[in-house]
C-alpha cells in the first residue's frame, strides 16, 4: 500500500501562490476576451480558488483529456474525453492545469486548441516539475515549482484518491516505483 510521508506544500503557501497568480492574470487579461478552460479532474480544486482571484469577466469551460505516448517518443497524442462547450475562435484562452510533469499533455493540448484559431492560448499550472520534462515546454504562469516526488492533494490524485487533501503531500509507493 502507498502512504503519505510528509506535507510538501501547506495550504497557506498554496493560497499565497494562487493570490499572486490571480493578481497577475487580472492585470494581463484586463482588456481581453477570456475563456478559462479547467482540465478535469486534477485542476478542479485549483480552478475554484483561482477564478475567484481573477477580477475580469470570463467564460468558464472544462475539458477532460488523457495523454498516451510511448516512452521513447518525445511527442504524443492527447485523447479528448470531454471537449469544451464553447467556440474558442478569436478568444483569449487560459488553460488551468494541476501540474506540468513530462509536458506532453500540455504540448499536445495547445496544438489541438491552437488549431481552432483562438486569439491566444496560455497555460496556468498550480505546480511544475521541470526536472521531469520529456518535451521542451514551459507554462506561462506557474504557482509553485516542485522537486521530483510523487505528490497528492489539492486536486492531485493517486489512483483517483487523495484529491481532497487541503495540503500537497508526498506519497510513497511500495517498491519505490513512481
Ligand atoms: P504530463 O505533463 O503530460 O506528464 O502529465 C501531467 C499530468 O500527470 C497531470 O495533469 C497529472 O494528472 C499527472 N501527474 C504528474 N505528476 C503528478 C504527481 O506528482 N501527482 C499526481 N499526478 C501527477
Ligand atoms: Mg491526473
Task: Explain this structure.
This protein has a single domain, classed as 3-Layer(aba) Sandwich (Rossmann fold). Helices cover 21% and strands 34% of the residues. The protein contains 3 helices and 9 strands, in the order βαβαβββαββββ. It has helices at 11-28, 44-51, 104-114, and strands at 3-9, 34-40, 59-68, 77-82, 92-100, 120-128, 141-145, 151-152, 168-172. The chain has a 6-stranded mixed sheet with strand order 4-3-2-5-6-7. Strands 1-9-8 form a 3-stranded antiparallel sheet. Helix 1 (11-28) packs across helix 2. The longest helix is centred in the first third of the chain and has 18 residues, at 11-28. The chain is globular, with a radius of gyration of 16 Å. It binds inosinic acid and magnesium ion. Magnesium ion binds at residues 42, 157.
**Overall SS class:** alpha/beta
The number of helical elements comes to 3
Q: If you average the pLDDT, what whole number results? A: 93
Shape: globular
Query: N- to C-terminal separation?
Result: 13 Å
CATH class: Alpha Beta
Supply database-style keywords:
three-stranded antiparallel sheet, 178 residues, single chain, binds inosinic acid, 21% helix, alpha/beta, six-stranded mixed sheet, Rossmann fold
Compile the SSE list and pairings.
Layout: E1 3-9, H1 11-28, E2 34-40, H2 44-51, E3 59-68, E4 77-82, E5 92-100, H3 104-114, E6 120-128, E7 141-145, E8 151-152, E9 168-172
Parallel strand pairs: 2-3, 2-5, 5-6, 6-7
Antiparallel strand pairs: 1-9, 3-4, 8-9
In brief:
The protein has 178 residues and is of the alpha/beta class. 21% of the residues lie in helices and 34% in strands.
Amino acid at each position: 500500500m502507498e502512504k503519505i510521508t510528509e506535507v510538501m506544500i501547506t495550504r497557506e503557501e498554496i493560497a499565497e501562490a494562487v493570490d499572486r497568480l490571480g493578481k497577475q492574470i487580472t492585470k494581463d487579461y484586463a482588456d481581453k476576451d477570456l475563456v478559462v478552460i479547467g482540465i478535469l479532474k486534477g485542476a478542479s480544486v485549483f480552478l475554484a480558488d483561482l477564478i475567484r482571484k481573477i477580477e475580469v469577466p470570463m467564460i468558464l469551460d472544462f475539458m477532460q483529456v488523457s495523454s498516451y505516448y510511448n516512452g521513447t517518443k518525445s511527442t504524443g497524442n492527447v485523447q479528448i474525453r470531454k471537449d469544451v462547450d464553447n467556440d474558442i475562435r478569436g478568444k483569449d484562452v487560459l488553460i488551468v492545469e494541476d501540474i506540468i510533469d513530462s509536458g506532453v499533455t500540455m504540448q499536445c493540448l495547445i496544438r489541438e486548441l491552437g488549431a481552432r484559431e483562438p486569439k491566444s492560448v496560455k497555460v496556468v499550472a498550480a505546480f511544475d516539475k521541470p526536472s521531469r520534462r520529456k518535451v521542451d515546454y514551459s507554462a506561462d504562469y506557474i504557482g509553485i515549482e516542485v522537486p521530483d516526488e510523487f505528490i497528492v492533494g489539492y486536486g492531485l490524485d493517486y489512483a483517483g484518491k487523495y484529491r481532497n487533501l487541503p495540503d500537497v503531500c508526498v506519497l510513497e509507493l511500495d517498491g519505490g516505483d513512481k
